[in-house]
Amino acid sequence: MIERLTQLPGIGQRSAERIARYILKQPIEETRKLSLALVEARDRIGFCTRCGNLTEEELCNICTDASRHQALICVVEEAFDISVIERAGVYSGLYHVLGGVLSPLEDISPAQLRISELLKRVMQEKIDEVILATSATTEGEITASYIAQELAGKGVRVTRIARGIPVGTDLGLADEVTISKALRGREKIIGGAED
Known about the structure:
Number of strands: 6
Order of helices and strands: HHHEEEHEHEHEH
Strand order of the largest sheet: 4-3-5-6
Radius of gyration: 21 Å
């Protein structure tokens, strides 16, 4: 069990041991429920054929929601990123899940991601804007840059989510790259010639 648990992302040997101890202390019925829940989820949940979101149907609930802005696509790395954006409650467009990021070191090329599907959607669905919401890692930046280049000249506005200092963070704890991006992405509060 510990060996299997360490194969999960973010679970090291010590965490796997703690999880295994917890499971073994539970009544057998609770362990069966956990096992059954894992198998049922894997059997029932798949990917939306349009955007790549997790769903039990052919199309996810976001793609079938006619009230959402149909000419706006937010590109994310993984389906779980959608729930993070949705919780903020400020975005009402559609999504496109890449299924990862470009990574020359891990031999992940554009062909292994859902980039060609994104390009087809942009052309077929008459998209006005594509928002690139990949992570602020080297791979996320490379992926965003690649997609922006692929969309250049296609008549679609390409934007990138702002990067900066997280709310509640002490400025002295931020690294130079974060501060640089925060300064470049600053917003006007008041003042200037046009006021």
